[in-house]
Amino acid sequence: MEDELGDLIHLADPPGTTGHAVSLRVLERPASGSEFLDCEFVVSTGTINGSFPVGITSDDLDQWEEALDKLAGNRFVSWLNSGRTVQLGIKPLASGAIGVSLQDAPSSQVTVSLPLSPSAGWIEDQRARLDHVRRAFAG
User: Fold this and answer.
1) Backbone phi, psi, residue 84, to 5°
2) pTM for this structure?
3) Collapsing DSSP states into helix, strand and coil, what is residue 65?
4) 31-61 pLDDT, tens digit each
5) N or C: less crowded end of the chain, CB within 10 Å?
6) For the chain, first and last CA: distance in Å?
7) What are the DSSP calls for 84-114, one per residue?
8) Which of 93, 85, 43 is nearest to 63 (CA)?
9) 81 touches 87 (CB < 8 A)
10) Is the Cβ–Cβ distance between 23 and 10 less than 8 Å?
């Protein structure tokens, strides 16, 4: 559906494997003039399911684009590390796998870390998701 914003981030293991997934789901279109896009990180594994609310700004979107550039260079990234919200870390591992961590230091003090083996082309997929959300945020 064109009006649906979906996930800004969606990282998941291939079907038939561990089923680990981390998403940043956009909850609704931003109100006119709003500085924040209401979102939630969603973590799903065979044993853990949880979510963390987060507000994303246009500056955060710019920083996510920079993070994707670093990931394309096989470098570790830390995103949303201002201390105001949940922080996302992504570390490239051997054979195309990544280590993903979410740290909710400002609120619950919970940290979740999990390995993922996203499909080839996952960085390009994240860029397409970012472009889709940016268009909605700007409009």
Assistant:
1) -90, -15
2) 0.91
3) helix
4) 777 788 999 999 999 888 999 999 999 999 9
5) N
6) 17
7) SS-EEEEEE-GGG-EEEEEEETTTT-EEEEE
8) 85
9) yes
10) yes
